[in-house]
Amino acid sequence: MKNYELIVHPVENGTHLRRSEIVGCLDSHTVIEFEKQFDDLLADGTATVLLNLEKLSYISSAGISALMGLTHRLRQNEGELYLLKPTEKVQRVFRTLGFTNIFRIVEDETQLKVAQRD
Amino acid sequence: MPGLVILLVALLALSLVLLVSVRNRAVLLSEQNAANENEKKIVYDFLDRIGQNVTSGADVDQTIEMIVTFAQEATKADAAGLFIRDAAGVYRPRVIKGLFPPLHRSAAADKLLAKRKYIADKVMKETFMAGDGVLGVVAKTGQQLLIIDASTDERIPDVENTGVEINDLIITPLTVRGEITGVLAVVNKVGGERFNAADASIAAAIADQAAVTYDLVKLYKVKAEQQRLEQELALARAFQAILIPTQTPDLEKVAITGFYRSALEVGGDYFDYIPIDDTHLGIAVADVSGKGIPGALVMSMVRATLRAEARLSLSPKQVLQRVNDQTAQDTRDSVFITMTYGVLDTETGIFRFCRAGHEPILCCSKDLRSVKSYLPEGIALGIVAGETFGVTQEMEIDLAQEQSVVLYTDGVIEAVNGAGEEYGERRFHEALASHSEQEPRKIIDEVIHDIEKFTSGLPQHDDITLFIVSWKPAVQGNGIDQLVHAAAGRG
């Protein structure tokens, strides 16, 4: 029984924005698949990711590590990982770790800065 | 281990001899005695070679290669190939000797095939399923196939398709405990002869040996991997045990009472007591995000840096800032460590601390039977070097007022029961509060008992570290001694 799914939407014309959504939990088991999926996504030049966390029910330290790793990789390409609407429970984990100072957590898409394609 | 291998080989040898003699009787009744003797000699020779191979320390892969070479030589074949079935039921070439033709039906004509090298390449890439082509037929039926004249057999692809002329061949299934695990094929008898029933019998005996040996290889591999994992775990556990103090400091006015239990898989908990000077003690509780050996290595680095920096400053923020800068340089982007580090004035009971992304710091008061939770701003170590880390706040607790400080790792609150629920902060705080008037040792015992009751014997999946730093109640009639000692300490 696997309690994890990553929904990935196609990149809109004229932007570098990749919308995606996690459903389920991100722990040491599901994180392997999560990282592999983003390896593939980043290979196509995705620079900015909007990751919807509304349906992320649980995140472990392995999951946080994965989000941190992804943030670093995107920032190296002058991109960004935006985390959309984490639940109160997930927010609390971010706050405890002090990662609210590091992650870009947004409540809606107007807060995004996305590079436009030439 | 080698002793076991030799024993196994001896057993196999015995069974093989019995097998061959049965075969001889069944298949070769009409053959001459001389031919029988010859066949027996070949098989004995084969067993000798396997024995030598194993006792000389050759690995099982080499032994398998030797088996195929032997099949080629003993049947006087131009080429031999061993195909092994994988977990998905796909047969893949394992060892190919000589000019082995691509036997798959779908092998397309290709001019390049005329070159030997390309034929070998093609054969090594060729896979098939049971039922596919002439090899697949044997894989499916488990019946040996002796084809004396390939030119009249339509199952055999012709030379335009393979690049190699096929005259005759023997295809033998590898069977272990009734299951077909592979196929051994010998092709084209040399010296103008054709394969006969005696060759088929030899091939069958060798295939039996190959099947059992290959089974052994798999067994060894699984065992070796298990051993490697167990060794790694034992190493990480031993390593972690070295890093963690076994004794709590004995202080006059402050009691430190702790509990630590590592999980089977070894979490990344670390705690430490660092004497700074006569009246100051550094206290750290940490959790590394990685487990196993990588986690233990990061932990050892953090420990070394912390121990060096702690002695240089009485400011926990300054110490953590330096540890953070060093750790951020040394670790991968995604590895982080949460830590609460504080400096305790063992005379006044003032505890100054910082929380680098770690669990909240709790204070228990005996009189109030309550728990206060402090969550000052702070970022986990190893993620951002430099200024951003500066948001981390320093806080101060007066132990003489608050009476006790509780430090712990997430293994306490994330203990899980059979329904998948976490023990959680609420239950933890309640357990602490309801026993807060008792001695620290008793409080810890009660909390651990409460967690164990909650998880009802399920295996612990993360390290648990829990300790209480408390102000000792003034002992009646001992006040003067304390003052004298304190004055001497300051002098």
Tell me the name of the CATH class of chain A. Answer: Alpha Beta
**How is the quaternary structure best described?**
heterodimer
Biggest interface goes to: A-B, 16 and 24 residues
Helix-strand topology string of chain B: HHHEEHEHEHEEHEEEHHEEEEEHEHHHEH
Write the layout of secondary structure elements.
The complex is a heterodimer of chains A (118) and B (491).
Chain A: E1 4-8, E2 17-26, H1 31-43, E3 48-52, E4 56-59, H2 61-76, E5 80-84, H3 88-97, E6 104-106
Parallel strand pairs in A: 2-3, 2-4, 3-5, 5-6
Antiparallel strand pairs in A: 1-2
Helix pairs in contact in A: 1-2
Chain B: H1 2-27, H2 33-55, H3 60-74, E1 77-85, E2 90-98, H4 116-125, E3 128-129, H5 133-141, E4 145-147, H6 159-162, E5 169-176, E6 179-189, H7 197-243, E7 254-261, E8 269-277, E9 280-288, H8 292-310, H9 316-330, E10 337-345, E11 350-356, E12 361-365, E13 370-374, E14 394-398, H10 399-402, E15 404-408, H11 410-413, H12 424-434, H13 440-455, E16 464-471, H14 479-490
Antiparallel strand pairs in B: 1-2, 1-6, 2-3, 4-5, 5-6, 7-16, 8-9, 9-10, 10-11, 11-14, 12-13, 12-15, 15-16
Give a description of the structure.
- The complex is a heterodimer of chains A (118) and B (491).
- With 118 residues, chain A is of the alpha/beta class.
- Chain A has a single domain, classed as STAS domain (Transcription Regulator spoIIAA), CATH 3.30.750.
- In chain A, 33% of the residues lie in helices and 27% in strands.
- Chain A has helices at 31-43, 61-76, 88-97; strands at 4-8, 17-26, 48-52, 56-59, 80-84, 104-106.
- In chain A, strands 1, 2, 3, 4, 5 and 6 form a 6-stranded mixed beta sheet that branches.
- In chain A, β2, α1 and β3 (48-52) form a beta-alpha-beta unit.
- The radius of gyration of chain A is 13 Å and the shape is globular.
- Chain B is 44% helix and 23% strand.
- Chain B folds into 2 domains: 2-222, Beta-Lactamase (2-Layer Sandwich); 244-490, 4-Layer Sandwich (Phosphatase 2c, domain 1).
- The model of chain B is unreliable at 1-8, 13-31 and 476-491 (pLDDT under 50).
- Chain B contains 14 helices and 16 strands.
- In chain B, strands 3-2-1-6-5-4 form a 6-stranded antiparallel beta sheet, sandwiched between helices. In chain B, strands 7-16-15-12-13 form a 5-stranded antiparallel beta sheet.
- The A-B interface holds A 61-62, 64-66, 68-69, 72-73, 95-99, 101-102 and B 287, 289-290, 332-336, 338, 356-360, 375, 377-380, 383-384, 388, 391-392.
